[in-house]
């Protein structure tokens, strides 16, 4: 007895079964999902570094190049691209599909530590990395507004508190902020006042840098080092308010002290004044959350 014998003996049932299979195939074909870009989780890691005030050319030469040199030595990297803009650099590493993303992240961190010696000394923080899918769009976008706080203050709170908490949520790959930047004090020099007093812009820069340096001030000893008292000398460091810098001494001319407010306009602002966000007509900080 062969396989076709029961179907030959029952022609009507065979025809009905064939028609049913054909209809099921047509229905399945019509409902079959088709994607030109299949949902494949590529092992991709983003490395970002920030240096406020640097031009794109400087970021590419002094930050992106050393990072690419060390990151390119990691095994399993099949594609690496970088982009530099004003004050920031981003390097994208794509690994082989069979490469474990966690072990690749450890190699990336080791490469970042190795590249630190070649990075600029004024790079405030080490480059950071994030694991994310480049084809994934943000699944949630938040817009934060306030009637009592400035966009710089909102950005500072979101960057230091909210984004850190969001990155701890399982499934969140990256959190990017837009529409603002960190609070900062902007010093707009008056060239005519500088020329009249004979003070250069480097003198002002040196005074600002010296006032922000956190150096030991020394100790005052009373009654000897062994039996007396020792008083630690502390000087208050300027904060992030313009009022703390306006009375800063930038030079001496004719026996008189020259204050920063005499040669410049000191205002409370943000690091990047060319980035703005808006929501319903109000200044807002935009938070993009990526899987």
Question: How would you portray this structure in words?
Answer:
α3 crosses α4. The strands form 6 sheets. The protein has a 4-stranded antiparallel β-sheet with strand order 2-3-1-4, with helices on one face. A 3-stranded antiparallel β-sheet has the order 5-15-6, with helices on one face. It starts with a helix and ends with a strand. It is α+β, with helices and mostly antiparallel strands and 291 residues long. The relative contact order is 0.14. The protein has helices at 5-9, 11-30, 56-71, 101-115, 151-167, 191-197, 201-212, 260-263, and strands at 44-50, 77-85, 88-95, 128-131, 140-144, 174-178, 183-189, 219-222, 229-232, 249-253, 256-259, 264-270, 278-279, 282-283, 285-290. The radius of gyration is 31 Å and the shape is elongated. The chain is 33% helix and 27% strand. The longest helix has 20 residues, at 11-30.
């Amino acid at each position: 007895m062969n396989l076709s014998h029961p179907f030959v003996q029952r022609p009507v049932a065979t025809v009905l079964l064939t028609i049913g299979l054909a209809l099921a195939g047509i229905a399945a074909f019509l409902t079959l999902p088709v994607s030109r870009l299949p949902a494949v989780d590529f092992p991709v890691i983003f490395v970002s570094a920030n240096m406020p005030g640097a031009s794109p050319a400087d970021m590419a030469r002094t930050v992106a190049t050393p990072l690419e040199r060390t990151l390119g030595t990691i095994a399993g990297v099949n594609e690496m691209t970088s982009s530099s803009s004003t004050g920031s650099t981003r390097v994208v590493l794509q690994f082989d599909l069979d490469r474990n993303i966690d072990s690749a992240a450890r190699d990336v961190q080791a490469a970042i530590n190795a590249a630190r010696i070649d990075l600029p000394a004024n790079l405030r923080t080490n480059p950071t990395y994030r694991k994310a899918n480049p084809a994934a769009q943000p699944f949630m976008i938040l817009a934060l507004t306030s009637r009592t706080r400035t966009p710089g203050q909102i950005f500072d709170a979101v960057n230091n508190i909210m984004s850190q908490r969001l990155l701890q949520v399982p499934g969140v790959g990256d959190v990017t902020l837009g529409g603002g930047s960190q609070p900062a004090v902007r010093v707009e020099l008056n060239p005519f006042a500088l020329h009249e007093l004979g003070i250069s812009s480097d003198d002002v820069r040196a005074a600002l840098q010296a006032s922000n340096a956190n150096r030991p001030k020394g100790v005052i000893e009373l009654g000897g080092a062994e039996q007396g008292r020792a008083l630690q000398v502390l000087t208050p460091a300027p904060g992030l308010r313009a009022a703390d810098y306006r009375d800063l001494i930038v030079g001496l001319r004719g026996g008189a002290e020259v204050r920063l407010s005499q040669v410049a306009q000191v205002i409370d602002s943000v690091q990047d004044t060319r980035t703005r966000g808006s929501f319903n007509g109000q200044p807002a900080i935009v938070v993009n959350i990526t899987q």
